[in-house]
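Objective 1b. Sequence-to-structure analysis of Cyclic Di-GMP phosphodiesterase RmdB.
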Amino acid sequence: LALLSDLRRALETGRIEVHYQAQASFRDERVVGVEALARWRHHTRGAISPETFVKLAESSGLMPRLTDYILDVALRQAAQWWRSGYGVPIAVNVSLRDIENPGFTELVARKLAQHRVRPEALRLEIAERVLVGDAQTARTTLLGLSKMGVRLSLDDFGTGYASLLTLRRLPFDEIKIDRSFVSGLGYDTDDAAIVRSTIDLAHSLGLRVVAEGVEDPATWSALEGYGCDEAQGWLVSKALPAGEICALLAERV
Ligand code: G
Ligand code: G
Ligand code: MN
Ligand code: NA
């Protein structure tokens, strides 16, 4: 409970930071996107993992506030990068709580207008595991966002139960293969089979594929051979503060 009120205060006083992790194209190794990742350095407890405070926000009703905050920070940053000539689409994680809110599409439209960012420059990531069941409001929200031009990513793919039907019914244009499959590529033949067939399946449905957790050149080569589109992971960059990732953007966009 103390942590919850500290989180609320951190959001009010702007003490949640946003770091950015680059995504690179396999084709030419250029940076083609960044993911915004929330970071919280608690004044006495030190770094609190996003898993902890995202879960806390989710269970306490604070999620809309967190998402609103991250969208503001990330879109302000995106607008600045575009003005500087090295703009790339920026990805923001959202939760089921967000997309179940009937006003969410409108909120995103308002924020894009406020920060003067094109809808195509924003990507929203939704974890696969949250999309079980038939959440009709969530579906309506995703369709509205997609119609507006915002791009949608199915995150942590492989960890949930999204069926082929889900992929067909919802307007995703990208999946992100969870790093638990990617990290074993070098030695686990099952992981290799899963990753290869996931990429083929996604492509045949017209979806682009991002591999998460690419940490070494051998994994990069394997994924390149499977026809994967983009890599995110420590080999490309860690999640870095805006001031540090912009050097990479200036050089590799
Ligand atoms: O890379 P990292 O350890 O920061 O991320 C841990 C988890 O927290 C990931 O599942 C990521 O999607 C989630 N996460 C990080 N930042 C945000 C955020 O701003 N909003 C939401 N909903 N989830 C986030
Ligand atoms: O939103 P998502 O669940 O995809 O969050 C990505 C998580 O993965 C974050 O916690 C991030 O810090 C972490 N991460 C990103 N790249 C790597 C990597 O190459 N290796 C490992 N082990 N973790 C990574
Ligand atoms: Mn993500
Ligand atoms: Na993920």
